[in-house]
């Protein structure tokens, strides 16, 4: 699916503008929307899935304006919201079967086949008889993906999927998404976790205070910070001084000193050397946006 977003702005009735003039083009594969809490990611995702309307701007999906073709667009979208919840009395397979009744016209026999196929795809076939609300957090999230996939969407929108998951579940979830993105489904994933993006997405945007701070590839974002990441070993006094002045990304205590990595336009200390940048560094760089450098 090709998605063209132009001048998208959302001002809530209380006057707060959560999305400001966002322009993006999203193609097939996996697209990551990175940003801190409050950046406007959920607001953006809700507009994308037609759950709320923008104040101004437009979104075209395969050339169709989503406001003019709301019903048609909805049949092509699978959505996993951040606060996805379950009906407590349903078993795992029953929950998915219920979702299938709501969003497909499949007959009972076809539904059962489809449900087990999806449970297998997300690694839940073994627990198909377990009550959905008794599943672990990671399993619930995977069941959420299965329900979002049931109508065979062309676009899958997933809001903060890995928050609160342990590392093993996080990796498992990312792998399921990577597999899906091979299958002609556009996946848009929002997250504040840098690792979700660096391990799965070739295209991304960073949202900060409702505005696009960066768009491109994760590698492109990393290149923007090259030359601004420094490493230096400091004593307590130097460290206390430097952390007041600069964005410190990491600190490791070594032999009574601090090995510090930080973001700075120019060398912050006579002993500082350039460090190899990664996406975490770039994220801090774009979030702080305090270096006075033109960012895009
Ligand atoms: P994120 O998903 O990146 O955390 P959100 O889209 O949830 O960001 O929120 C962006 C900003 O918009 C926040 O400051 C939030 O308080 C505000 N916001 C979200 N929904 C509403 C609403 N319905 N009314 C007013 N403000 C809102």
Automatic annotation (TrEMBL):
- InterPro entries the UniProt entry points to: AAA+_ATPase, ABC_transporter-like_ATP-bd, ABC_transporter-like_CS, P-loop_NTPase
Keywords tagged on the record:
ATP-binding, Nucleotide-binding, Transport
Which molecular-function annotations from GO does this UniProt entry contain?
ATP binding; ATP hydrolysis activity
ABC transporter domain ranges (all copies): 3-234
Gene3D superfamilies for the chain: P-loop containing nucleotide triphosphate hydrolases
Q: Give the family per the record.
A: Belongs to the ABC transporter superfamily.
Matches recorded under PANTHER family:
ABC TRANSPORTER, ATP-BINDING PROTEIN
Name of this protein: ABC transporter related protein
- The protein's organism comes out as Marivirga tractuosa (strain ATCC 23168 / DSM 4126 / NBRC 15989 / NCIMB 1408 / VKM B-1430 / H-43) (Microscilla tractuosa)
């Amino acid at each position: 699916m090709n998605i063209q977003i132009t001048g998208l702005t959302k001002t809530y009735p209380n006057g707060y503008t959560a999305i400001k003039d966002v322009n993006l083009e999203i193609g097939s594969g996996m697209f990551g929307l990175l940003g801190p809490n409050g950046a406007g990611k959920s607001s953006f995702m809700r507009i994308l899935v037609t759950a709320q309307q923008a104040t101004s701007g437009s979104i075209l999906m395969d050339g169709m304006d989503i406001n003019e073709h709301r019903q048609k667009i909805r049949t092509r979208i699978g959505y996993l919201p951040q606060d996805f919840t379950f009906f407590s009395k349903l078993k795992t397979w029953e929950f998915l079967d219920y979702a299938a009744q709501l969003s497909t016209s499949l007959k009972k026999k076809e539904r059962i086949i489809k449900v087990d196929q999806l449970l297998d795809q997300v690694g839940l076939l073994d627990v198909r008889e377990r009550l959905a609300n008794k599943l672990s957090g990671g399993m619930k999230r995977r069941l959420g993906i299965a329900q979002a996939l049931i109508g065979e969407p062309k676009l899958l929108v997933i809001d903060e999927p890995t928050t609160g998951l342990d590392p093993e579940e996080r990796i498992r979830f990312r792998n399921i998404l990577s597999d899906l993105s091979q299958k002609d489904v556009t996946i848009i994933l929002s997250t504040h976790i840098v690792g979700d993006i660096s391990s799965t997405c070739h295209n991304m945007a960073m949202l900060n205070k409702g505005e696009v701070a960066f768009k491109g590839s994760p590698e492109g974002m990393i290149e923007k910070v090259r030359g601004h990441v420094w490493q230096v070993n400091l004593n307590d006094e130097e460290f206390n001084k430097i952390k007041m002045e600069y964005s410190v990304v990491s600190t490791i205590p070594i032999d009574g000193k601090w090995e510090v990595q930080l973001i700075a336009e120019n060398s912050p200390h006579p002993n500082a050397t350039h460090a190899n940048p990664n996406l975490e560094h770039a994220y801090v760089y774009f979030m702080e946006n305090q270096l006075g450098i033109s960012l895009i």
